[in-house]
Amino acid sequence: MEIAEWLLTPASLDVRRLGYLTAAISLRARAARCRGDWAAHEAQCHAIVAAAVAGLASRRTCIVLGSGLMRDVPLPLLARSFERVVLVDIVHLWPIRLKALAHRNVELVSLDLTGSTDLLLKRAPGLSDPFLRLLDIGDTDLVVSANCLSQLPIGPAVIAERRHRSYAGRVPDLERRIVQNHLAGLRRFPCRVCLLTDTVSITIGPDGTVTDRHDLLAGVTLPEPDAHWSWTLAPARETGTGETIVHEARGYIDFGARERSRGARTAP
Ligand SMILES: C[S@@+](CC[C@H](N)C(=O)[O-])C[C@H]1O[C@@H](n2cnc3c(N)ncnc32)[C@H](O)[C@@H]1O
Predict the structure, then answer these.
(1) Short-list 214, 212, 215, 114, CA closest to 160
(2) CB of 246 sitting under 6 A from ligand 1
(3) Which helix (H) or strand (E) holds 95?
(4) Which residue has the CA at smallest separation from atom 10 of ligand 1?
(5) I need a surface site. Which of 10, 77, 174, 178 has the fewest CB within 10 A?
(6) Does residue 202 form part of some domain?
(7) pLDDT (tens digit, 9 = 90+) per residue, 218-258?
(8) CB-based contacts of 208: which residues, under 8 Å, 6+ apart?
(9) Measured in angstroms, how far is the CA atom of residue 25 from the centroid of ligand 1?
């Protein structure tokens, strides 16, 4: 079934070679298995996006980054609230393609939000700027970065480590740069930006003790969120080791406003 999905999903050769299609299919399968465990997280995310939409005076275009299957983001709400909704991801599986077809104002853009594809395939010496294309969309009144920030560096880091250590090493600190570039890209939009992201991964042993805790944002810190919650990413039955993986997640209704208030508090 998953092999058929891999063969039948529209995706470029680069996306297939770099493992993004395989990752998206396995994420879809995990999301289906963990539906109940992820429900509270998805409800939190929907509430943050709904609050971001509610405060807007103008609702022309909404761009969703890392749209995936649009589980975290309410597509019907966006489709009825905005004239145009643009879903951006490196790969769009069939379930979201079919959902998008049901709305005449929803379109899909396939884009590497890290700008690392050419670097990883040894066609460029550094990262490209994916935001140039996004800023060109125009009339944007809301951008939602939908739980992709922590995901963006994972694929490039693995590939750089395994296959091209010396070449990708031309971009020192690749993971941190990718996280920083995404946040810097979000700051370039003149409109409201709603940010959903997980920040920390915690592994809990069968006896309830924390066995591992690591930062998912490569040392990049964020301002205080509007809301934070725990997301049971992988319950014990999913990990197979008896351990449970919980992520700390955050929601920002208006990321720019949160950053400005952090700046104001830290100013001399
Ligand atoms: C945790 S999922 C987000 C889930 C999604 N918001 C939803 O509601 O279903 C992370 C998403 O980031 C996307 N992603 C990972 N690397 C990417 C890249 N380099 N460029 C664009 N999207 C990427 C994945 O394809 C995936 O859809």
Answers:
(1) 114
(2) no
(3) helix 94-101
(4) 148
(5) 10
(6) no
(7) 999 999 999 999 999 999 999 989 999 999 999 999 999 99
(8) none
(9) 11
